[in-house]
Amino acid sequence: KLDNNDHFNLLAHSLSLVVRAHRFSPTGAAKVQATLGQSPELRYRRLDVIQRSIPTNTVTMNLSNLNHNLPHPDRLVISLVRQEAAYGDMEMLPGFLETANLTSVSLTVAGRSVHAVPIDNLDFDYDNIGRIDLNASSYQSAYAQLCLAGGYMDPATPCPITYENFARGCCIFLFRLPGSFNGAQSTEPIDLRLTFKEATKDPFTLVVW
Cβ(205)–Cβ(98) under 8 Å? Predict the structure, then answer.
């Protein structure tokens, strides 16, 4: 029991700050460092989302320097959504990630490929009412890249996206980037190239996490 005449000190051996659903910016890190007078060990995840419009009649799309003014990422997730779904059509699902008749996806850092396997010769075949025909489709390289980059090569821990679902609304392209770390500005440009089997008939939104 303590009263007003007692004096005591507290010695903190370890301090941790846990904040949920908070985006910690480099400016915030600098303020913490200035307050503490030393460089703290800050472990946090940062998520940046980049969106680009893909108009109709697009056969090839090149996006240069995706990481302009952004920290160098340790991984990238690439997906395509129909523009109507991305911007609020209530009858369409914004989470339905389409194959969009892609034939190849190429990601480079300073001109160097970061693919575990090349993503090319993709062939997403559709029946006469627009449903994907798995028997006639070929996209092994894209699915292999997803499994390799995600670390899903052990049968005991399979990829949560099955080979069938990949072509049926769960089409994502996952890449791990070498030599990256949170909070660092990179001068090496990240470039993306998409090639379609034929000119796009509908506008799409490219989403990069």
Answer: no
Rounded to an integer, what distance in angstroms lies between the CA atom of residue 88 and that of residue 94? 8
pLDDT in tens, 111-156: 888 887 888 888 888 776 667 777 778 888 899 999 998 988 888 8
Q: Contacts from 141-149 at CB under 8 Å and sequence distance 24+? A: 141/117, 142/105, 142/166, 142/171, 142/173, 144/116, 144/117, 145/115, 145/116, 145/117, 145/119, 145/173, 145/174, 145/175, 146/172, 146/173, 146/174, 148/116, 148/117, 149/75, 149/116, 149/174, 149/175, 149/176
CA distances from 143 to 133, 165, 189 (A): 16, 10, 25
